[in-house]
Amino acid sequence: MNDAPRTYDVIVIGAGPVGENLAGRARAAGLSTVVVESELVGGECSYWACMPSKALLRPALAQADARRLPGLKDAVQGPLDTPAVLARRDYFTANWKDDGQVAWLDSVDVDLVRGHGRLDGPRQVVVETPEGGSVRLAARHAVAVCTGTTAALPPMPGIADVNPWTSRDATSAKKAPRRLAVVGGGVVAVEMATAWQALGSQVTLLVRGGALLERVEPFAGEMVADAMREAGVDLRFGANVASVERDGAGGEVRIGLEGGARISADEVLFAVGRAPHTGDIGLETVGLKPGSWLTVDDTCQVTGVEGGWLYAAGDVNHRALLTHQGKYQGRMAGAAIGARANGEPVDDAPWGAHVATADHAAVPQVVFTDPEVAAVGLSAAEAEQAGRRVQVVDYDLAHVAGASLYGDGYRGKARMVVDLDRGILVGVTFVGPGVGELLHSATVAVVGEVPVDRLWHAVPAYPTISEIWLRLLETYRG
Amino acid sequence: MNDAPRTYDVIVIGAGPVGENLAGRARAAGLSTVVVESELVGGECSYWACMPSKALLRPALAQADARRLPGLKDAVQGPLDTPAVLARRDYFTANWKDDGQVAWLDSVDVDLVRGHGRLDGPRQVVVETPEGGSVRLAARHAVAVCTGTTAALPPMPGIADVNPWTSRDATSAKKAPRRLAVVGGGVVAVEMATAWQALGSQVTLLVRGGALLERVEPFAGEMVADAMREAGVDLRFGANVASVERDGAGGEVRIGLEGGARISADEVLFAVGRAPHTGDIGLETVGLKPGSWLTVDDTCQVTGVEGGWLYAAGDVNHRALLTHQGKYQGRMAGAAIGARANGEPVDDAPWGAHVATADHAAVPQVVFTDPEVAAVGLSAAEAEQAGRRVQVVDYDLAHVAGASLYGDGYRGKARMVVDLDRGILVGVTFVGPGVGELLHSATVAVVGEVPVDRLWHAVPAYPTISEIWLRLLETYRG
């Protein structure tokens, strides 16, 4: 080890989309910047999450759309060509090679050090390189932790021995298991259950509670559950996994549920939560607890660390476990680091240039199931818990002409939550086929704090699904 | 004829979507309201425009989407089942029966008089009924003309003798002609050329000028032209129709172009413009010129008519020939009539409750071709002509992850026009498959006059096509 550190203005640990965005913004502010990556540049999202999962889901959703259209539906009654879908997925993950992403770093003049980075006291990072050496880095201004999360497995005896799937396996599998058991009821669980059922697996979805997608409006999970059952998923609520074992290497997995039921499958995916990827990054050298979530302020500066040099953006700060929101934090944190380093004023008023205000008010999410679920801001329950005086407005999407035209038998629902004291929207949820791109209209309305009276002038094109906006506003106005 | 008039607060001539919305709002304001309709309640949109055209186009677009997806595309290489598509179209036009729409009028307590309505001096309307009688109506407060437009045929000798298609025939045809010539380059022309080419016709599109869709950003028409050619349409620019004749009843149509070229087809659609449907509605009895567009203020009150009792909403006022914008005018005019009748203040400041301000700033339009074209507000050229100091920001949609996932070989483009003095958007255009529902995000941004700096906080969900917003804003910020 060469003890003379390589010094940069900014060190970023983790070259996923969040680290990339943060590094890009810091560099754009004129700061010399290095990122440290122990796996692939591009991170979880590019190789084992957003990109491959959507590549698996997109043909399934397009097929479902086509099956709702007389004139086209007869042609698409057969199964998807699974090898072709998997090959397309491989393309979108660049076959798990990161040359393209490395080229991007080069193009914006951000350095890359490959290896496992660990904090080593204030502003110091030591990277254990793949070759067995180490590189010491020192930061003049900031170190940003963008290490994300890993799949959390339940503490169950012998679980590692069954070689369970996590989100990584579910997104990168080379063939469809004949029988796939999925444990969980959140986004990863429902998306992967949807994808693999469409790709030929018989999926059993084991949900501990009584609902899917518990963080959004309850009707979303209900509609997704109905559709999954119709697609052939064996969906079981109140299913607590008590034991899991595999019948020899490559044999079937046997899952025991509390109450005694047993399920056999060829693979089992555990999608029961995420843990911060901070167990072995030297947090203890700066007074923080290894394995903990990193608490940050709105500029993504870690609280409780002297000198204000440590930042954390993305999943690891636990504000919103979504790629796009982490990228947003990365942009804001990178800009804040730049402003502070350059002695410029930090614009940290709400919605300022250096704060991730939207984390509190307008986190959008699209779940790529059939129906799609698209939500931003507060649910009705969250608004109520927050003590807001709100009106909840619901409308059946099946009654919107554009939705009916989109596909026969269209089922969907929309809800908007109006803050009656401010006359603005604080939350909007759409559930239905083809609503994903509609979400951003709601995000702009919530973030822009556009008065409901002004939204009355925002005319949706006819006949699109967007006309739901007119119906919601008419319903609100009574 | 019974000369004692039936008196209402408000008389609406024309029960299309615009008249329905206006009547509904007037009635909601407590005014007794009657609508007069000479054809079908529901109007052009429901039977011969938006609804049937989108019913014809939707399977074609879904097929195009499916053909871009490995794993699904092999199944959809064959032609659409045209009879099934036409049957679905018939369903969406309710087989050209208006019972459902009449039931809606009943449900909101608006009266209906069937027949041809004509003004007969101030506040008077005489309806010639289908039975050969007449009904005299008198309005206490307002008469609203919502008669829309009809297809304009070029003044060409013998054109009527060839029994040409207009938009009505193109949307209601019972089978696909083997060869269809389409004259025009606007929305109706490109949508119907797209639909019938997909439904089995060999379409020849004859465009007088050198571009399609001349009212939106030039790249839109270029991309649609490229795609139409690839779909097999014989697209000819600079094609001026000089003569047209049919070879006997039911025989082929022969079209002569200036310069001497000749085209044979089984049917010819003229989609070369619209004329106000005001030729025979008694305008002369109130000092206006029959056959003219009706000029209105922002409350849709016709200018130059004494007493302020005459309104005109929808296509007939020539502000924006789009169903949704006409409906918006109908809502605003109905509310304005209600306020004036009830002696309430009229909120006619820009974006007020009684004015159609969006007609000037934010008219959205989606063209349902492959690629879709979605635009709102000013084009770059229009902004420049208006003397605005703007920055034009372009981005290639093919470089957005969500677009690539949407379909292989994705081609699309987006443009936003930023008003540099106000720091807001004045126009946005998206061209590409699947962008239709994305438009409303732009409409909310333009209508809400959301500052560009605030839009930076409106995070698009990853990976959707909506991420184009991030790319446009990044490009703008440099």
TrEMBL record, chains A, B:
Q: Which Gene3D superfamilies match?
A: 3.30.390.30, FAD/NAD(P)-binding domain
Q: Where is the FAD/NAD(P)-binding domain?
A: 8-326
Q: Please give the cofactor(s) recorded in the UniProt entry for this protein.
A: FAD
UniProt keyword annotations, A-Z: FAD, Flavoprotein, NAD, Nucleotide-binding, Oxidoreductase
Q: Which InterPro entries match?
A: Class-I_Pyr_Nuc-Dis_Oxidored, FAD/NAD-bd_sf, FAD/NAD-binding_dom, FAD/NAD-linked_Rdtase_dimer_sf, Pyr_nuc-diS_OxRdtase, Pyr_nucl-diS_OxRdtase_dimer
Q: Which domain of life is it from?
A: Bacteria
> What's the EC number here?
1.16.1.1
On cofactor binding, the record's note says: Binds 1 FAD per subunit.
Cite the binding residues for NAD(+): 184-191, 273
Pfam families in the record, alphabetically?
Answer: Pyr_redox_2 (PF07992), Pyr_redox_dim (PF02852)
- The main enzyme category here is oxidoreductase
Q: Which GO terms describe its biological process?
A: 2-oxoglutarate metabolic process
- What would be an example GO MF term here? flavin adenine dinucleotide binding
Q: Which cysteines are joined by disulfide bonds?
A: 45-50
Q: Please tell me where FAD binds in this chain.
A: 54, 117, 315
Record's family?
Belongs to the class-I pyridine nucleotide-disulfide oxidoreductase family.
Q: Which PANTHER family match?
A: DIHYDROLIPOYL DEHYDROGENASE, MITOCHONDRIAL, DISULFIDE OXIDOREDUCTASE
Q: What is this protein called?
A: Mercuric reductase
Q: In which organism is this protein found?
A: Actinacidiphila cocklensis
